[in-house]
Design brief:
The protein is of the alpha+beta class. The chain is built from 14 helices and 12 strands. The chain has helices at about 30-35, 55-80, 125-150, 170-185, 185-195, 230-245, 265-275, 295-300, 315-325, 335-340, 345-350, 365-375, 380-390, 400-415, and strands at about 15-20, 20-25, 100-105, 110, 150-160, 195-210, 210-225, 260, 305-310, 310, 330, 360-365. The strands form 4 sheets. It has a 5-stranded antiparallel β-sheet with strand order 8-5-7-6-11, sandwiched between helices. A 3-stranded antiparallel β-sheet has the order 4-3-12.
């Protein structure tokens, strides 16, 4: 059987929410995790109880995984030419079967011998793992900078004016040009020297709101010593940033909104929350700040064909996925990671962290995997195997009953 898998649509919907004046129905991740895994409307596989899920640490992790897998399928559907289509589906070694392995320290099962796209932008499953690794690197690096080097830190935010009719690709290109001009400007370098800036870590984020796409940089400035008074340089830096934006073909931002410079306490808050827009710990209820939407908000809304500001969430996600290809979310100054003792880990390596210190639970042949993928039950199968492992019934528990139920359903449908 070929490794090509087509996914179906097995998303249940509850709740009614309002997206910029339009009523849409939104998938309830808790219900998806706690209800029986229906493979057709009203059909029960008799594996899970109907009682509401209790969000223990393990239960909440299961809700996250359910939602991430469903969104991954949706992203693959909307971006059929991107690597996310093969993520956790196609095999790495086609001479071997796919496996499910179990990490005893984390008490979680995961798929093995499957490709991982390593996309922090378009794959919710990989993004969760990558952002956790990156946030750990940031925290480790800042601790080392303060404790070993006695340095300080500040947070610089750079954005530009934008309108709803501007394509994201054009804004990204202009913002990159403006940032290059800004950091190479001699007056900017002189002001950074006054602050004692020695290194930078640049983070990149994109949201969507009433005024269209909003790409912006958060730059952690690592200084030789703690700095508290930025008033003397903030306005001059803002004026220089406005000039760089205008020369790069962007709409000039205002003095108030184009550049923001905060002290170390704000930098710490930024690091503590970094990545939360891209991991799914807040589940499907999370919304961007101030009425804006994160990219994964848009992907989530595309499940129910929602419209945001006159455009379908699906088309917005497609625009985002194409425009962000090859973009880096976090960039460290050259040599900074080595200075702070932070290991170099690629996004692909970060996405495969679960492979370490795991044991094999079982192999899964092509036919069984095709059933799971077609019915969007890859995550349910992992949960079943976790339960079977804890209860000592591997090979004769809920995982086997799930496969049998899926097969019986398909046989009934073609009969």
């Amino acid at each position: 059987m070929s490794d090509f898998i087509t996914t179906g649509s097995a998303v249940t919907c509850t709740q009614v929410t309002c997206v910029q004046g339009a009523s849409v129905r939104r998938p309830d991740a808790c219900e998806l995790a706690s209800e029986r895994p229906d493979v057709r409307a009203g059909a029960s596989l008799g594996i899970f109880t109907k009682s509401p899920v209790t969000l223990t640490r393990r239960g909440f992790a299961q809700v996250q995984r359910v939602h991430a897998f469903l969104l991954q399928d949706q992203s693959a559907k909307l971006l059929p030419r991107e690597r996310v289509c093969n993520c956790l589906k196609k095999r790495i070694d086609k001479t071997k079967a796919r496996e499910v392995r179990y990490n005893e320290a984390r008490e979680k099962a995961h798929w093995s011998n499957v490709q991982r796209c390593g996309s922090i932008w378009t794959c919710p499953v990989c993004a969760r793992q990558i952002t956790e690794v990156r946030r750990g690197e940031l925290s480790q690096g800042l601790t080392a900078w303060e404790e070993k080097h006695g340095g300080g830190k500040a947070l610089l935010t750079l954005t530009t004016s934008h309108t709803a009719d501007q394509p994201l690709s054009g804004l990204l290109a202009g913002l990159q040009r403006a940032y290059k001009r800004f950091t190479e400007n001699l007056r900017v370098r002189g002001l950074f020297d006054r602050l004692g800036v020695l290194h930078k870590v640049r983070g990149f984020e994109v949201t969507y709101g009433d005024n269209g796409w909003h790409p912006h940089f958060h730059v952690l400035l690592l200084t030789a010593a703690p700095v508290s008074d930025f008033k003397a340089v903030r306005d001059e830096l803002a004026a220089l940033w406005i000039q760089c934006c205008a020369r790069s073909g962007l709409n000039a931002p205002s003095m108030r909104h184009g550049l923001d410079l905060r002290d170390g306490s704000y930098a710490e808050k930024y690091v503590s929350k970094w990545g939360l827009d891209y991991e799914l710990t807040k589940g499907h209820t999370k919304q961007g700040r101030g009425g804006s939407w994160t990219p994964f908000d848009l992907l989530n809304l595309s499940l129910v064909d929602a419209t945001v500001n006159g455009r379908t969430a699906a088309s917005l996600w497609q625009e985002f996925g194409v425009a962000m290809k090859g973009q880096r979310q976090l960039v460290w100054s050259r040599g900074l990671k080595a200075l702070l003792g932070v290991d170099e880990v690629t996004d692909e390596q970060a996405a495969q962290e679960t492979e370490r210190q795991s044991i094999q639970l079982r192999e899964v042949d092509n036919f069984a995997f095709a059933l799971l993928a077609a019915h969007q039950q890859r995550h349910t199968f992992l949960e079943c195997l976790e339960r079977d492992y804890r209860e000592g019934c591997l090979g004769k528990g809920s995982a086997e009953r799930l496969l049998i139920a899926l097969l019986e359903h398909d046989l009934e449908r073609v009969a």
